C-alpha cells in the first residue's frame, strides 16, 4: 500500500511490465532458494502431520457419530457442525491468538518458547479437516451392507472390533476418492498458516518477493510446489490403494 | 444344548415367534422348514441373539440369553452361523476370512490359525483358493468358505440359515455335501432349509413352522410319510409337486 498523501510513484519495474526481466537464478540457488526449500519442508511437515492426525480423528468422530449412546452421538454431531461451518482462518486465529490466553501463565510461557505457531496451525488444520473426513467415512460405513456387521458380530466380535476389522477397512476403501480430496484441500489450506507466522511455502515465497521484487518467480515456485505436492498425494494414495488394499481384487 | 421355553417375539405388532418350545440335544441335527414368512429365519437368529427375544427363556450351551449379564460375544464365539448370502468379508482373502476371528478372539498365532485354516479348506475342498478374494469365487465356493470360517472358531453349535437358497442349482450339492460331512462328525446343527432331500437323509428331527408357531416336530421319516398337520401336508405337496399346486 502506498501512503495516501504521497503521489503515486510505484517502483519502476511494476509498471514496466513489458520490460520485466525474468531472473530465475535467484530462486534456484543461493539464499532465496534456501528459504523456499525451508518453506517447502515446513509445508510438507505441516501437511503430513495434519493429514495423519485428521484421518485418525475423523475415524474416531465417524464412529462416535454412529455410536449407540445418544450423548456420544450428539457430541460428535455438534463437533462436526461446529468445525465444518466456521472458516478455517478464524479457527487458526482462535487457536493461535485465543486459546493460550485462557491457559495458566506457566503453560503460556512454555507454549511461546516452543514452536507454537506451527502447533496452532496443525491443530486448526487437523480439527477442521477431521470434520469433513468424518462425514465422508460415515457415508462410506452406511454404504456397507448391514449383513457385514451381522457376520462380524455372529463371529463373536464386539461392536467396536467389528468396526475396526470388518466395517471400517471396507468403508475407507469406498471413501478413498473423497478422502483424497480432503487431503488435497488440507495441503493447500496449510498456506493459511502464513497468517500466524508459520514459515511455510507461501510465507517464504512472499518473503522472497519482498526482498527481491521477483514476485513472478517466487510465486511460480510456490505454485509448482503445491501442484507437485498435490499430485504426489494423489499418487501415493493410489499406489497404497492398488498395492496394499488390493482394491481391484476385492470388488 | 439349545432349549427354547415359551419364547415369544414381536416385530412391532407382528407376532413372529409364538410360544416356541424346542429342545436340541448335543450332536443332534434339527431341520426347520416351513413357508416363507413363517418365522424360521427369526427363530434361528435368536439362537445367537442376532434377534433378541421378547419373552420366555432361551438357553444355549448353558448360557441364558434372557439374562442381561450373559456375555453375548462369548456365546457367539461358540456358535457358528452360516448366512444365506454367505457374507464373507470382501476386503480379505479366503485365508484371512478364516483366520481373522481365531487370531483376534481366540488369540491364536498367525501360523497356528493358518495351519488350521488350511485343514478346514481341505475339508471343504478349496485349498487351492486360499489367496483368492470372495468376489473371485462362485456362490457355492463362497458358501463353503463361509462354513470353513465358522468352523475355524471350533464352535459347539452350527446354525445354517437357508445356506443353499441363494445358490445356482448345480452348486447346491457341494454345499450340502460339506454340511452332511459335518453332521456325520457329530456337530450339533440347526438348519433352516427347503432341501427336503437333505432333511430326509441327515436330520434327526424336523420342525415345521407356520405363522410363528412350531406346528409339528418329528423324525424325518415320520414327518415326510405322515405329516399330521394340514399346513404341513400342503407345504410338502407344494414342495414335491410345485406345478400342481393351486393358485391362491
List the helices and strands and how they pair.
The complex is a heterodimer of chains A (about 250) and B (about 250).
Chain A: H1 12-15, H2 25-28, H3 30-65, H4 70-84, H5 88-98, H6 105-113, H7 116-142, H8 146-154, H9 159-189, H10 201-212, H11 215-244
Chain B: E1 2-11, E2 14-24, E3 29-33, H1 40-47, E4 55-60, E5 63-64, H2 72-78, E6 79-82, H3 94-104, H4 110-123, H5 139-151, E7 157-161, H6 169-184, E8 188-192, H7 196-202, E9 205-210, E10 213-218, H8 220-225, H9 230-240
Parallel strand pairs in B: 3-8, 3-9, 6-7, 7-8
Antiparallel strand pairs in B: 1-2, 1-4, 4-5, 9-10
Which short descriptors sum up this protein?
heterodimer; A: 251 residues; mainly alpha; MetI-like fold; 11 helices; 75% helix; 0% strand; B: 248 residues; alpha/beta; 6-stranded mixed β-sheet; 4-stranded antiparallel β-sheet; 38% helix; globular
Explain this structure to me?
The complex is a heterodimer of chains A (251) and B (248). By secondary structure, chain A is an all-alpha fold. Chain A contains eleven helices and no strands. Chain A starts with 11 loop residues before the first helix and ends in a 7-residue tail after the last helix. The model of chain A has no long low-confidence stretch (mean pLDDT 88). In chain B, the strands form two sheets. A six-stranded mixed β-sheet of chain B has the order 6-7-8-3-9-10, sandwiched between helices. In chain B, strands 2-1-4-5 form a four-stranded antiparallel β-sheet, covered by helices on one side. In chain B, β9 (205-210) and β10 form a beta hairpin. In chain B, α3 (94-104) packs parallel to α5 (139-151), α4 crosses α5 and α5 (139-151) packs parallel to α6. Chain B starts with a strand and ends in an 8-residue tail after the last helix. The mean pLDDT of chain B is 93. The chains are: A mainly alpha (251), B alpha/beta (248). The A-B interface holds A 147-148, 150-158, 161, 165-166, 169-170, 173, 245-246, 249-251 and B 48, 50, 73-74, 76-79, 81, 83, 85, 87-92, 100-101, 104-105, 133-136, 149-150, 153.
